[in-house]
Amino acid sequence: MSKFYPLTIDSVKQDTRDTIVVSFAVPGELQDSFSYLPGQHLTLRSQVNGEELRRSYSICSAVQERRLRVAIKRAPGGLFSNWANDHLQAGQQIEVMPPMGQFNVPLDAANRKHYLAFAAGSGITPMMSIIKTTLLTEPRSRFTLVYANRASSSVIFKDELSDLKDSYLDRLNVVYVMSREQQDVELFNGRIDRAKCDAFLASWIRLDDIDAAFLCGPQQMVDAIGESLQAHGLPKSQIKTELFAASVPARNHAARPVIGSSQCEVTVIVDGTHNVFTMDKEKESVLEAGLKSGIDLRHSCKGGVCATCRCKVVEGKVDMDANYALEDYEIARGFVLSCQSFPVTDKLLLDFDQDN
């Protein structure tokens, strides 16, 4: 799971003025490694101006399509996204880590469910995989998507969404909310905040008919929608969230009183190999200490958002500074984000290979 593989870019399509869709050719011997679930993401790695950069991007294909592709939108000051938009082209190779992520729910052909999704901007990317896979897997289920953008010109996958709507007239409902383009229905104008979501639930969406909700976008929007959904009766366990890493403010580690020794002996299991190193408990995260020790621990955002560095505490204890990716049931099972984890005990055993 932690290994990068060089994949050849099959195609690069300009979807909007500032977004490209990149498809990868996966050789036969890697098909199993790169099989994916809806809502999962890929971590890409490349040298940009002499610096190694890693970024995670959601897969936007249905599982049934067996076509690995991601959308990369330019971001202000985004070193990787701007480089990718300017330089990636068909025939190039780029290093890619196999799919990861828990932004999904179990699907069953016998289900008759109604799913709800709120997305903003490039937050539509995982939703495309989730929506298409769900509608293909569960022929009696429905999906409602509320998609926020500045204007119609910035809508990613606009044509693809239109084709999906035509294919699933009775099972897919798509609502566009524009912040800088006036629409006839006032509810569909402006930003999606708590009041806007409350209004949707009061007049447009019957929450008692919703089985699960998916939220993807900037933290402020996702938090507001999550609060509204729960206030109107949808249990937190039925709400899946994914954040834009750039929307999460940087946090400085607040040192805590050290218990026992000032140092910790850490063992990490990566791809079946046990690696041991010693670190100070309060100076840096387990991830940073492991990387400095020469261990290639998987990571991407380093901000507690993407969950690429997710691992399981087998022995010992850590404190996590921030968590925007793991759900309560994952934490209860012992999973942590190594980029946000600081040792509490004198010995620590972390397993990066465990998935459940």
UniProtKB/TrEMBL annotation:
Name under which the protein is recorded: Ring-1,2-phenylacetyl-CoA epoxidase subunit PaaE
Q: Which PANTHER family match?
A: 1,2-PHENYLACETYL-COA EPOXIDASE, SUBUNIT E (PTHR47354:SF8), NADH OXIDOREDUCTASE HCR (PTHR47354)
> Iron: present as a keyword of the record?
yes
Organism field? Herbaspirillum frisingense
Q: What cofactors does the UniProt entry give for this protein?
A: [2Fe-2S] cluster; FAD
Q: What positions does the domain FAD-binding FR-type occupy?
A: 2-106
Q: Does the keyword Iron apply?
A: yes
Residues in 2Fe-2S ferredoxin-type domain copies: 264-356
